[in-house]
User: What shape does this take?
Amino acid sequence: MVSAVVLAAGLGTRMKSRLPKVMHRLGRKTLIECVLDTAFSEADEVVVVTGYRRELVEDFLRKRYPSVKFAVQHEQLGTAHAVKSALPEVEGDVVIIMPGDMPFVRRESLRRLVEALDEGFAGAVLVAELSEPAGYGRVVEKNGCVLKIVEEADATEEEKRIKRVNTGVYAFKKDLLEKALDKVKNDNRKGEYYLTDVVEILSSSGYKIKAVEAVRREGMGINSRRQLAEAYRERCREKAYQLMEQGVTILSPENTFIDEDVEVGIDTVIHPFVFIEGKTVIGEGCEIKPFSVIRDSRISDNVVINEHSVIEGAVVDEGVSIGPFARIRPETRLMKGSKIGNFVEVKKSVIGENSKANHLAYIGDAEVGSGVNIGAGTITCNYDGVKKHKTVIEDGVFIGSDTQLVAPVRVGKGALIGAGSTITKDVPPDSLAITRAPMKVLKGRGIEDYRKRKYGIKE
Assistant: This one.
């Protein structure tokens, strides 16, 4: 059984925040979520070590990872002390150890660490080679094995010239880890119990520790808001390049922000300053224009999303046109060939095939049939102050501009609603409904007459 221990007890003073460092977001996910997603992909159980504002971290994680376990580090006495706090909760005979602020560690690397133990090593360390290693613990090796890890504050000048550094990700056999932790001392410049000392303790006892090579950014930890921003840019850039290799056109990868779980079909064109987030899937041949936001939605083929549109939790069928400045809210489905135009908001509604609402409308809690035209300024009045009610608009209906449909109400197939009407009752099929007050014309009462009567102006 493999267990993972995730270290998340620290404050993160360089973040200058009231939040624990691991609760800061990298896009839509917190740092700790990024780490736990990877940990759970390879480990049978995960134990998170909490400390600073632990209630906040624990409550947040319990809602997202019901099986997660917690251990508390009441005093911040170092990484070895943190791991020792977690071991009573650990059931596995193999222990992976991960910092909670390293979002780029891959499942494949964790697997390679665990496989090293199957090969007979007592432990394994994920190491990275850096041209500028300042600030990192140096990895001292001999004959293909790690002898020790030296923190920079305690390193000699010769050791500081070593380019291979410790990422802080390990795997150990639990029984050997427990024995080594009991021997760790705090006789260093910081007066802390370093987890890195476990490597030297095991190595000097005749056990072999393997170095596993990290891939590119895996060793990147987040200690400041600047590093958080750099990590976000790096993640988005890498995702953009990946999609481009798969046949997606991204006009400006440096200015496009796409979550790593997003899927996009070939020949889709994504313009700059587009945000695509969550579990979004986009089909082939689409065009997404600048400043649009798509979140947790399914977009079919040949859809055009115009500038400044927001789509969240929706399903969009083939050949739909959206925007500019449209808002598509959760539980909405836009069916094939429909059109939602500028300044139109759709919420929890189905818009039928080839139906359109081109301008300045609100459609909420509605079922709209096919071939419907919804005029500018039309709204479904779905909320009566207590409950939400449904509007049904059947096929082929034409709704004139500035119409209010007071739900619950049904407009029958082929009906015509006169502009400026307030519809409070069902409209039968093939009928005209109009509630406009009769127009009156008063001759001689134009603008000049108004000025004379209102202000005494004679000319």
The longest helix spans residues 225-245. The radius of gyration is 31 Å.
